[in-house]
């Protein structure tokens, strides 16, 4: 059985004070929640304070990205080991906004994922097609290419610390969600690809999150699908009540 994992990706939102206010409410209401794993991904500057506030709870602090080198002349970058030192236990890599605006490619996403794992972090590897790619019938080919790049150098031992987030780009921040059936079709495909690459036991254990306009109103139906094991939540993670409702929906599904 896979424990669903719901992560709030706060993106470029919230001052440190606002981040602490939100996370304090989440800790109070979800700090002892059972049957679902929960994480939040604040900005790098808020991450140490958030991690400290979450001490003593089951909520995880996640980074929104990490760099693949551990030190050196890489102005502006933050290494996976530094994020672990700051209190992170997971790193999101390959988010579509990073791919679209910051030049992340499948090979560099793979390097970031490997660096996260080497630093002892879990890696949430994001994959997903654009609207043009979906309309062109390329969804599965795009996901395969992104997944293969993300998995380079990995074997079955990564399963507990590897999460795949399927996030169709056309559903991120648009209010347009994939239907549970559309999402399940891609999730099942990803699991099969994971089995081909890492073996059936690992593929069965790896959690595959759905992301793209997840809200309290659609979360339960999405997460009721066999291969949807939680969610990566953007906009709806910025309000405690919405995020808590999504976490509870994941648990009841
Ligand atoms: C995301 O950015 O990972 C995301 C899924 O955003 P939203 O929930 O706002 O669509």
Largest sheet: number of strands, sense, barrel closure: 8 strands, parallel, barrel
Q: Spans with pLDDT under 50 lasting ≥5 residues? A: none
Q: Compute the average pLDDT.
A: 97
CATH superfamily: Aldolase class I
Bound molecules: phosphoenolpyruvate
Helix and strand content put the structural class at: alpha/beta
What does this structure look like?
By secondary structure, the chain is an alpha/beta fold. It has one domain: Aldolase class I (TIM Barrel), CATH 3.20.20. The protein has helices at residues 16-30, 47-53, 80-86, 96-101, 106-118, 131-135, 139-150, 180-198, 200-205, 216-223, 240-252; strands at residues 5-9, 37-41, 60-63, 90-93, 122-127, 162-166, 207-211, 230-233. An 8-stranded parallel β-barrel has the order 1-2-3-4-5-6-7-8, surrounded by 7 helices. Helix 1 packs parallel to helix 2 and helix 7 packs across helix 8. The protein is globular and about 45 Å long. The mean pLDDT is 97. The structure holds phosphoenolpyruvate (PEP). Phosphoenolpyruvate (PEP) is lined by residues 9, 167, 172-173, 211-214, 232-236.
Label this structure with key terms.
253 residues; alpha/beta; binds phosphoenolpyruvate
